[in-house]
């Protein structure tokens, strides 16, 4: 990166930084589905803070409510104090999300981020069952701390831990191995008590693997995993950190499968405008923590509660979720048109709702395409074990025009990369 404005980053920041190397500029402002850099250049955001901005940048009502709260000297930090925003969030979450879906969960604030939610889920599953192993799936991503990383099936990410991670077993995800019945594989593993591998405490899964390449499990497969969990008395943890909060069209991504996971992890967009917030939803019977057994200083941020409560109102009418499905169709059709236009890419469409991707069969092109797209004003990133998938995660509030404009930039970027 030669540009002067990137120099301070390069000199001061640890090498852990990654996204900003792909987007070498300094961003300044954002609204809805658009971002502007310090030169005033406009970008369409198909990344949405890795799924943390389902409701777009700087939603006006959320902004106004947060500003008013600060101006009135509202309490910002909350730790374990009861505050008005915390109380309102919990009441609204119950009324708008849990009760209409007949879900009997205790709501826990495990810390500020997705990995905090996963850690708490793994902890409580182990505590409740008295077992230690957790099954996860090929290409799963659950976070970067030791527990969540141990169920993350990505050797590159695991390499960051330096030494082997324990207490997890990875199984093939739905459709991962062609012509193989992954449920039968899982069942054989569970039945094989003679091999010395202990019965697991839990199975953790994403219904659509975000970082792992936009691999969407079928509803039938999810139901079978749920059945297996019930049959073997294993807890089912759905990590809805990226696929939840409406990303796939329903509030929880598992809703169309008709399953009721024992534990659900939520983060990213639950904070409304990109504020750090996480929830762990635990079936009442498994809420077996003693007071103080899982805590942390930033377990509740009142500004996030305010934005989150406002975000929930979207689910009071079904108009919002219907609009997601309609936009998802626009995205799907546009992606299919690009795939047909460039047969040499050997590309395939993937995903559910507004969580979609193009898997590109032709080697090592995705990074070049995304870099070209950035130059042309589109923020989009890759996913998958070999970065072979271009991932589309626009804010859910994007309109048809925004989707078409973004796909137009992508189309031109592919054309330019191939020429
Ligand atoms: N689970 C899933 C499915 C995720 O996509 C992510 C983040 N990409 C995490 C957990 C971890 O969340 P965080 O980065 O907020 O710790």
Automatic annotation (TrEMBL):
Gene Ontology biological process terms from the UniProt entry: ectoine biosynthetic process
A GO molecular-function annotation: diaminobutyrate-pyruvate transaminase activity
Broad class of enzyme this protein falls into: transferase
Keyword Cytoplasm part of the UniProt annotation: no
Cofactor(s), names only, from the UniProt record: pyridoxal 5'-phosphate
PROSITE patterns: AA_TRANSFER_CLASS_3
InterPro entries with a match to the protein in the record: Aminotrans_3, Aminotrans_3_PPA_site, Dat, Ectoine_EctB, PyrdxlP-dep_Trfase, PyrdxlP-dep_Trfase_major, PyrdxlP-dep_Trfase_small
CDD domains the UniProt entry points to: OAT_like
Keywords: Aminotransferase, Pyridoxal phosphate, Transferase
Domain of life: Bacteria
SUPFAM superfamilies: PLP-dependent transferases
Keyword Ligase among record annotations: no
E.C. number(s) listed in UniProt: 2.6.1.76
Pathway: Amine and polyamine biosynthesis; ectoine biosynthesis; L-ectoine from L-aspartate 4-semialdehyde: step 1/3
Family, similarity comment: Belongs to the class-III pyridoxal-phosphate-dependent aminotransferase family.
The protein's name: Diaminobutyrate--2-oxoglutarate transaminase
Organism whose genome encodes this protein: Lentibacillus halodurans
